[in-house]
Amino acid sequence: MTANDEKEQLEKLRAAIRHHAYLYYVQDAPEISDAEYDALFERLQKLEAQHPQWVTPDSPTQRVGGEPQAQFVKVRHPSPVLSLASAVSEAEVRAWYDRIARLLPSSYRPQFVVEPKIDGLTVVLHYEDGVFALGATRGDGDVGEDITANLRTVPSVPLRIPLPSDGHAAPSRLVVRGEAYMRISDLKELNRAQVEKGEKTFANPRNAAAGGLRQLDPAVTASRRIRLWVYSIISSSGPVPRTQWEVLQYLRQLGFPVNQDAALHDDLDSALAYAERWMAGRDDLPYEADGVVFKVNDLTIQEDLGVVGKDPRGMLAFKFAPRQATTRLKELGINVGRTGTLNPFAILEPVELGGVTIERATLHNFEDIARKDIRVGDIVVVKRAGDVIPQVERPLVELRTGAETVITLPKECPVCHSPAVKSEGEVAVYCVNPACPAQAVQRIIHWAAVMGIDGFGERLAQLFVDRGLLHDLADLYFLRPEDILALPGFAEKSTQNLLDSISASKTRPLPRLLAALGIRGIGDVVAEVLSHHVSSVDELGRATAEQLQQIPGVGPVNAANIVDFFASEQARRILAKLKRGGVRMEGEAPRAAATGPLSGKAFVITGTLPSLSREQATQLVTSNGGKVVDTVSKKVDFLLLGENPGSKLAKAEELGIPTLSEGQLRAMLQAPTGDGTRQGGSL
DNA sequence: CACCCTCGAGTTCC
DNA sequence: CTCGAGGGTG
Known about the structure:
The structure is a single chain. 35% of the residues lie in helices and 20% in strands. The chain is α+β, with helices and mostly antiparallel strands. The strands form eight sheets. Strands 2-13-10-3-9 form a five-stranded mixed beta sheet. The longest helix is centred in the N-terminal third of the chain and has 24 residues, at 3-26. The structure holds a DNA duplex.
């Protein structure tokens, strides 16, 4: 074989390998087996080894290797690489549309391209004379980092723009923007390998791709199975299509990998419908997406619309509200409850979920932690219960590195360092010190909330305790204006408001008072029942356990809790102080349950009512003889239904409980005699 | 004694 | 909202 023959064969091999790599990585439709591909590749390597002078930078063999770099060089982008404004609801997308429509000629109806928003790392690729010359991260949008050596190892990054099939000539200079990402399956594999090597695992594909591309040693990047999708042209020496849709076709023709799920729509409704449909199937995608991007198709219009900050007006990310996220559990925190319970919570690496950044989440209790085997350092799945309260669902055990630490029961209270105890057969762990300052703060907050001292929450309670102004809840009634005024954030007016609010709390109905004391196991409902059997706090204090157990809803445990409470030195002191402070400790005139058209009926309120606050609605129901309870159960007669109801509605439907609107409730009150309601017996 | 139903307690973020 | 557990019932 002559040298010329060999050179020709070498070129053919390269072309064949490029072709098959393109089919495999870009089209995802290989025509030959992996083994056949490997054979071609080995043959090329051998030829190049024999003729090093023929090795070119765009040869498929040049994807691997390269010298590790000392650091990344900064690269200025030819024009700013913009970011995206985002929306989390259809309403926000429509609001965006309304904003841009006002800037457009009134007769103009924009088309939209909807593209998946890939969870990856934005990269900028430069081609000189059709050859991959420079690749950079987005950085701050103006300046990124040169990661050319690493991007060369990514198989779907064309090292040379494949010759287009339809006669288009590749421009001599072309800069494109794309997203480097990992498939979910590849990430899993990578994490498995990381665990074996005892190295750090990745919580999501974006971190893995970003970590992979920011390796100083390209050989490491090469092992990461990173992929690419390209979706826009940043600059070109040749003609550029005038619409986004044509840009995607053009990039595809040039041989770049372009996501297949992009779609062109003639109006916003159609685009939104497509987006919703596509998002619904997101769990089945091989890659992670965090939403879609809406782009005004006409690029001239996009330019005319301009930029706000770094966000082009002509584009919008429509993110789906994820129901869960994964992040690292950095540390274990412990809260002290009002009753002395030590409650574990997770301190997390901040993660966005449903439009808010989550930094903490409840871990419920230590048994739950043990059952789920949650450890400090774990990557955990976090979700928001009822779309509000973050909780740690489970650890991703397969992502463990061995550096995680098992969570054990606390030995002592994190605040007062008294011993922590767990009684047999009980889940909760308690701080044994009744004088624990953390408990005092919680009891004060509870008192203030139940007695209706507005605006006195955790922050203030903590502040007042720290400053030595409050040692227990009864001290509230001995606060002096000058002490409050000296505190940060308080002036004349706010001081007076607080004092007025405290003063107003001195005369509350007996059930409020009983609930506010914070006796373990005694909440709103039991306090209400108790108030029908005693006329004052003192009378309750004199009751024996046997007497208390006669009261419905009070069993041996609650009876003992009540007796123990009144026997404690601390409680006696506080009760005496409350009396001195002028707090009324008796009920009003002997009370019988109010009677009226709603007698004997139990209501649950859900959602926002048109004209009544929750408190007003409760008042309205109780003053007409009805009862308002918090949870839907078989004993509930009606669900009072407002706007945006929560899960109570589903529960009520399940139990076949009728719902009422505020209007229907009012109509029931108007009715001369209820609808055959039995008169609730007064106790 | 084994269930079922309700209540209490604690929870996060804006 | 969720879970544990108290209280009542069969």
